[in-house]
Amino acid sequence: MERKNPLTHLSQKGRGSPSNAPPQRFNLQDREVDADWLDEREQIGDSPVKLTTDVTVELPKSIINYNKSPDLPFDRSINAYRGCEHGCVYCYARPTHAYHDLSPGLDFESKLFAKPNAAELLRKTFAKPNYQPATLAIGTNTDPYQPIEKRCRITRRILEVMLETLHPVVITTKSNRVVEDIDLLAQLAERTLTAVAISITSLDPKTARLLEPRAPAPARRLKAVKTLSTAGIYVHVNIAPVVPGITDHEIEAIAAAAAECGAKSISFIAMRLPHEVAPLFEEWLEAHYPDRKSKVMSIVRQMRGGKRNDPTFHNRMRGQGPWADLIRSRIAIASRKAGLQKAKIKLRTDLFQRPVIKGSQMELF
User: Fold this and answer.
1) Ranges of each domain in the chain
2) Domain 53-345 belongs to what architecture?
3) Does pTM surpass 0.90?
């Protein structure tokens, strides 16, 4: 008789996390510091009813996030949204949702926050006399082209400011919806002011649907790579993350497909499981791959110094040990065979034009 998985009933159709995060509320003093953010967690009871997506308007007073992380190629970023409807079960940004007294589990992918004044704040920031331009990253925390962008259009308005001011910008996304802004991106690319990184975790639709239930299918992402590349836009493919025992066998195939579609470079990120993400991912494994759970988590610990996560700079992205070294070697060999290179995204900053804010003294000149 086939053994039924007791956790299968917990999985919400179309959602990544099987449940909300495990209990423990706001114990910052006991939390390990991650390399780029702190977080806390709380318990919110599981609900058997089908989840709907709620969007709350957030009106921040500033929009650019600055960092001093030595393992990041940028020092500033913008996130138009908090939470992400794509529902990627492995998403390292999930714990940040606890700052809103919400769970990093199902709440992260169903209770979202949108910042409709992002473009306005950005223009005001660029207009400041002491602002110095440098590449701005969009999509470092949550996806700028997740489904709600279709109606909110916050990312598009941000790109309009980028084009108006000729400011360099790099976009990271898992969505083919980025193609809808190709008119703006092509104009930026003509001036060497933009590049797009598209994340592809798996080429198998079934695997992708389990890992990233509301993200576009792999074929659509590859089509976006081709469309953007044909328009003269630098496209980088990021295998992010490589999930050991689940997707790592696809490294060579993803590299070949990316090159065939016109991508210029490729990279990878070893799967990160900070804080609540680790138990959520283990619960997901139990629900979908119970036969592989022990193997997968064993490899994760081997790449993370015996733990489920290593938050230190550099190691958090690349991992360590024989398994991480093997993945790096395979990426390097696959890249050479496919004719891909390491990312060489160098955007111009000398074209920047400071905007004039209506009603300001500069408008008089």
Assistant:
1) 53-345
2) Alpha-Beta Barrel (3.20)
3) no
